[in-house]
Write a structure and sequence with these properties.
single chain, four-stranded mixed sheet, alpha/beta, 18 strands
């Protein structure tokens, strides 16, 4: 259960968290190894969050039809947010995950906590603020209505109402909260994003404190998640030191071009020399991972019939991080990220499920020409390495033991080495 604002009662992780079992053999290499090498420790105890994601999530109003907002009559309620999206996707990928934040003492906050709990995410360190509201955004979905302000098929736009939200009051005081401190101390993966830095001075101070609190055996990943609207009244020059303090840096080439003047992976590697790995996502084309020593792996994206674009970046991050946790080689990490993103692109909303374990394994092991020939749509996945088209990716997650989230990968020992 979440706790009421400053109350620091011990949190109990929800039952059913999947914990990866040890594997006798490591996956065979298909590309250069990452600078973040597997160290092979024993898996965490059942129910312990392996990954912790910190940041704001909001209620989401989804339109009942494509087209400009002025033409929409009805909206349905959902939830969304970069860090909680990653936590939910990690849980679906078999990585026990937690989300730490603040929500308002309102219906939107309760809906958010309920949905994340249903996804298998531990929310026991989330504070409920009695005075500030849960943030809200509306999603506008493009279509083929022909109306003047229609965004067009496959495009969407988010309209935020988050000023003064409960999450904007996140601060370094979080580190003194027993429930959050205990969870952070036990995490072997901490995921942050640049969105948090833009919310308030206190949120920026929290990111700085988390990045300065280095722990042996804990990997810190940071996704730029550039949101221009959030930086209109903030100074984006605070971002580069934050990004360079991470162990693993995730950047979109387009957003990096806007924020830093370049989307070139090698130039970004030079700009941010400290992270063990810099991963640059070039939209629907390819993703490049560059290690500290200059070793580079590039993997093309899958061909996808896009249903809705929102959430693909968070899904890629979760897939890549899950591959890192499981000690996959760099190429398989990138492929798992691509596959996770492709499934998100072919489903409505920010969350999507991966296909069954045997399908994922076949795609991660596919020859380059077979990977390039693979097609993903809402109707399923067609690939030379699959005997027949799979069922739709967003409806075929396999069940995990004891009611836990689906695990689309063969069991493997969590493996995060010191960067």
């Amino acid at each position: 259960m979440p706790r009421q604002d400053a109350a620091a009662s011990p949190g109990t992780p929800p039952p059913g968290h999947p914990t990866a079992a040890p594997s006798a053999t490591a996956p065979s290499a298909t590309g250069p190894a990452s600078a973040v090498e597997p160290s092979g420790p024993a898996p965490e105890p059942q129910g312990t969050p392996l990954a912790v994601c910190v940041g704001e999530s909001m209620a989401v109003l989804l339109p009942d039809r494509p087209g400009p907002l002025e033409s929409v009559e009805n909206f349905s309620l959902s939830v969304g947010g970069a860090e909680s999206n990653v936590a939910g996707a990690l849980s679906a990928l078999g990585v026990p995950s937690a989300w730490i934040s603040r929500v308002g003492d309102d219906g939107f906050g309760r809906r958010l906590l309920g949905e994340l709990t249903a996804r298998g995410v531990d929310v026991s360190a989330v504070a409920v603020d009695p005075h500030r509201p849960t943030g809200l955004y509306l999603k506008e979905v493009g279509g083929s209505t022909g109306e003047r302000h229609d965004l067009g098929p496959g495009r969407s736009r988010l309209h935020y109402h988050r000023r003064g939200s409960a999450a904007a009051a996140l601060s370094p005081a979080l580190l003194a909260d027993p429930a959050a401190a205990r969870m952070l101390a036990g995490a072997r993966l901490l995921h942050l994003s640049g969105i948090t830095a833009a919310l308030s001075d206190d949120c920026l101070a929290l990111l700085r404190a988390l990045l300065a609190d280095r722990r042996p055996g804990r990997l810190v990943s940071f996704d730029l998640n550039w949101r221009p609207a959030l930086w209109r009244e903030r100074d984006p020059s605070v971002l580069p030191p934050l990004l360079d303090a991470a162990d693993l840096l995730l950047l979109g080439a387009d957003e990096a071009e806007t924020a830093f003047g370049t989307g070139d992976p090698l130039e970004l590697r030079r700009r941010f020399p400290s992270p063990a790995t810099v991963v640059v996502k070039d939209a629907a084309r390819l993703v490049t991972a560059v290690e500290r020593d200059g070793a580079t792996v590039t993997e093309p994206a899958l061909a996808v019939e896009v249903v809705e674009a929102t959430g693909a970046g968070d899904a890629f991050a979760a897939g890549y991080l899950a591959g890192t946790v499981r000690g996959l080689d760099q190429r398989r990490r990138l492929r798992l990220g691509h596959l996770s993103a492709a499934c998100a692109l072919t489903a409505h909303g920010d969350q999507a499920e991966l296909p069954p374990a045997e399908v994922v394994e076949a795609l991660l092991d596919a020859a380059p020409e077979d990977w390039a020939a693979t097609r993903v749509s809402a109707d399923g996945i067609v690939s030379p390495v699959l005997p027949a088209p799979t069922a739709p990716a967003h409806t075929t997650a396999t069940a995990a033991p004891e009611g836990g989230a689906a695990d689309p990968r063969p069991a493997a020992a969590p493996a995060l080495g010191a960067p």
